[in-house]
Amino acid sequence: xxxxxxxxxxxxxxxxxxxxxxxxxxxxxxxxxxxxxxxxxxxxxxxxxxxxxxxxxxxxxxxxxxxxxxxxxxxxxxxxxxxxxxxxxxxxxxxxxxxxxxxxxxxxxxxxxxxxxxxxxxxxxxxxxxxxxxxxxxxxxxxxxxxxxxxxxxxxxxxxxxxxxxxxxxxxxxxxxxxxxxxxxxxxxxxxxxxxxxxxxxxxxxxxxxxxxxxxxxxxxxxxxxxxxxxxxxxxxxxxxxxxxxxxxxxxxxxxxxxxxxxxxxxxxxxxxxxxxxxxxxxxxxxxxxxxxxxxxxxxxxxxxxxxxxxxxxxxxxxxxxxxxxxxxxxxxxxxxxxxxxxxxxxxxxxxxxxxxxxxxx
Length: 362
Description:
This protein is an alpha+beta fold. It folds into 2 domains: 1-61 and 226-246 and 281-362, no CATH class; 63-222 and 249-277, no CATH class. The chain has 16 helices and 12 strands. It starts with a strand and ends with a helix.
């Protein structure tokens, strides 16, 4: 069995201070850190085009990017459900951009919500802007639109989650092939600036949905393994996580579109939309323990510490030889069972020096 634990590797500036808390509140994790063999994978987002969590997910699904693309570019096709290798897939994700003393930044997608009604209203407000352009748009869920661009369009792809750790000016697409997209995006931003949806969000103290972030540019591909199954902290407490029951959803408009339209559509062919939730795979295997992820993304280390006992409890339900993958900002650590030697029957294996990689820059 293999368990993925995103948010389990704190940044190096706080990792050392958290060691006593991990030892006190998550003893079963510490036990595995001492007995399993660690392999460190450097997965810097500026090189992979995605977060380490997303990179590990894509690796588990068997994605191998072509020479002209980075690993994260394949996430667009995965979200869109496109498996046709002759189709290039771009996605634009509804985003919240803010400008501070350190420049423009984009909020992490997990830090804010968007309702289907808000997504529909924002789409309706701008749906006529690309009527006379060589650009086509189709919403595939409440956060993401599939975008059809000029076949020569290209840029350095970076997923929205990875972009949240970067300066926006360093990654804003400047290529000539995306000039028409930048013009369209500028018009969309102006319409959304004082849109009723954002006025209402401001009154509720929520960030505005004021832009789109473009990523992808790779071809469709077929996962060799089914999607990762999320395990929430509340599920761990009730020990309901052992279930392998399938989680499926209704067919989306985007799925129906891909089944009936194989070529790039003209703008006139896309005139309706539905902000629907992504469809999960019918059969799932590799579980993902989510209990540490949200406080990790928020930098809420008190909440992160508070989530440790539930993780320890869940680990107690797993086979001691379960492989664990821990992810942080810049890397992942894969923990696998040590190779058994004949002398282990006489002498206990030496504990692993997990502090040596726990404090690495992350």
